[in-house]
Design a protein that fits this description.
331 residues; mainly beta; four-stranded antiparallel β-sheet; 2% helix; globular
């Protein structure tokens, strides 16, 4: 796994998923039909440098820094979560228990709980798994604080700004809302039974994101080519926009401009900026030279967008003003 740095920013992004952290190899087939792998080394362009190489014990499915970038949590295909030092890359903690070992299914998302001055929650982490487990961990003691068992593949999660609620999504059309203190489900957000009404998703949901300044508002995206807008107190979505084909953690909200960025797993129109208030499309961001199919996209501060996808296994930093690639890494 590769850690990237830009000179004016301490970390590339809070979440870069498996397409940029897959092993440095390319699948090849010989004339006799034998499959072998050719080693590939990363290349970096622009004002971006490779700061560390962290060798993990398995395939990386997701990763995320904590708020101050002192910790890097990495989720593996066998379900284990490794916590590394953000400064040195040294392995600090291993988050696993017998349930994780027995299921041996991938970790699908990692989210550090926002720290609020006296709540003693610093570096508590919420982890979802393809087995349907949703676990809260205390990193320093490697202790599982609670486990929720959902009857689906759970693919992603998000905390609201106050960190008193969290939501999960997965292979079905439902989004579950939980009370953070009790870990009990308080609402299931889902579409109406009538197929004539599009007030929710009709297929699996890969990305969910609370609005940074609105306690009850969140958005979601998945395979049905819609972004749904929700109020966590209401069962059905309150509005929607059509277009993005979301297949990973590729949905983010910029509170300063009230803009949404979406990354779609497709060749054309794969990176788009939308107005949160109206749902109108603001810009189609120019594609990279390989027309990568995007699995992840995120606002990177006020001035940049961080994206990554398949084809060239490329991560890009895009200047928000010019919409041009400012720097990139190819793995």
């Amino acid at each position: 796994m590769f850690a990237l740095e830009r000179s004016s920013v301490s970390s590339l992004s809070h979440s870069i998923h498996s397409n940029m952290t897959t092993p440095r190899s390319t699948r090849k087939t010989s004339g006799a039909g034998d499959v072998f792998f050719q080693q590939r080394e990363p290349s970096v362009d622009g004002n971006l440098k490779l700061s560390q190489v962290i060798e993990t014990s398995g395939d990386v499915m997701c990763c995320r820094y904590n708020e101050d970038s002192t910790l890097l949590a990495v989720g593996l295909a066998n379900g284990a979560v490794k916590i590394y030092s953000g400064d040195t890359g040294a392995l600090l903690y291993n988050l696993s228990d017998q349930e994780v070992v027995d299921s041996s299914l991938p970790c699908t998302s990692i989210h550090f709980r926002a720290y609020h001055g006296g709540d003693r929650s610093k570096n508590n982490v919420l982890v979802t798994y393809a087995s349907g487990m949703v676990k809260h961990w205390h990193t320093a003691s490697s202790t599982c604080l609670s486990t929720i068992h959902e009857t689906r593949q759970t693919l992603n999660a998000a905390f609201n700004t106050a960190a008193d609620q969290f939501i999960t999504c997965g292979e079905d059309d439902k989004i579950y809302i939980y009370d953070e203190s009790t870990r009990q489900r308080i609402m299931s957000c889902e579409p109406s039974p009538s197929m004539n009404v599009m007030d929710g998703h009709r297929c699996r949901v890969f990305a969910i994101q609370f609005h940074p300044q609105e306690a009850y508002q969140f958005i979601s995206g998945g395979w049905d080519d819609t972004i749904q807008f929700w109020d966590s107190r209401i069962q059905h979505s309150i509005r929607k926009l059509y277009g993005p084909h979301i297949c990973g953690d590729s949905l983010d909200i910029d509170a300063d401009h009230n803009h949404i960025v979406t990354g779609s797993w497709r060749k054309e129109g794969n990176l788009q900026i939308w107005d949160y208030s109206t749902g109108n499309l603001i810009k189609n961001v120019p594609q990279d030279f390989a027309s990568s199919l995007l699995y992840c996209s995120q606002w990177h501060g006020k001035d940049y967008i961080a994206v990554g996808g398949t084809e060239q296994n490329m991560a890009r930093i895009i200047d928000r003003g010019t919409l041009q690639t400012d720097r990139k890494s190819v793995v």
